[in-house]
Amino acid sequence: MKIVVDGFGGDNAPGEIVEGAILAVQKRKDIEVVLTGKADVLNKLINGRSERISVVDAQDVITNDDQPTLAIRQKKDSSLVRAFDLLKENEDVVGLVSAGSTGAILTGAIFKIGRIKGISRPALCPVLPTVVDRPVMVCDSGANVDCKSENLLHFAIMASAYYSIISGEKQPRVALLNNGAEEHKGNELTKTTYALLKESPVNFVGNVEARELMSGDVDVIVADGFAGNVLLKTLEGTAKGMSVLIKKEANKNLFSKIGALFMGKFKGLKQKMDINKYGGAPFLGCKKIVLKTHGSANRENVKNTILQVATLHENKLNQKIEKLVEEISSKVGDEND
Prior knowledge:
This protein is α/β, with parallel strands linked by helices.
């Protein structure tokens, strides 16, 4: 199977993108990677190290400063647009990876690839670590700022199918992000969504507060893109802040420096909380697999995101989402009859 990768998306492009692609084809012999971007630069970096990596020339780059819709329409020779063209036009290209502009990737996914039938909006769904050996997903984490209850219902369906694939858990626990655990809490959106989720085919376990994100008590947290993005950015900021505080305390005086020598176990904690091992975040609901990895992605993250595309394709993620949507549609039809 072929996977197309935006070779010039992200802060560390193209070097880390190329290295990640090489690691991915070394890991799996049944995949090919197509890199899009400035061919002379990419070919020089590849340096003939793999026959299963090819290059498609694209001389332009979409940056985070570009307006997403205009960029997708006007920068037709950009690495991201060329990647979407390849994904759309070639049956054997099963998915796309980019570390570029989130807005541009979402816009390209909607206008060039399209949505799965029955899905109202695609949603960004990252995988995050918890305090137990079981990850948690947040869906949506920034693609849709203004949502209706129907959108959140679809997010729950898609994320539940996604979690089942990566974990093997047949009935992942789905919760709704709210300002309290009680059913009557929240605004009009969360109240109407709660009622829909109770009647849906997902394993809905009720509301969850933001402080429970890393508890491991739930597997999927459903939210509108505004609240989900705030939750995600708060976690990132807290993690960075704690890291700075620990380093400052460790270097405070002679005794703390000596104590720091015995803090080896913190390395294991750091590895456990490393988001690079989880790969990228898919835009669930697109007709083909589209994954966004974070802008500062290193080669390990790029590799894992490419392999993630292969896994999701093999496990028929989109077909499972379509089946769940059909279940809901038929149920609603029966009730209306």
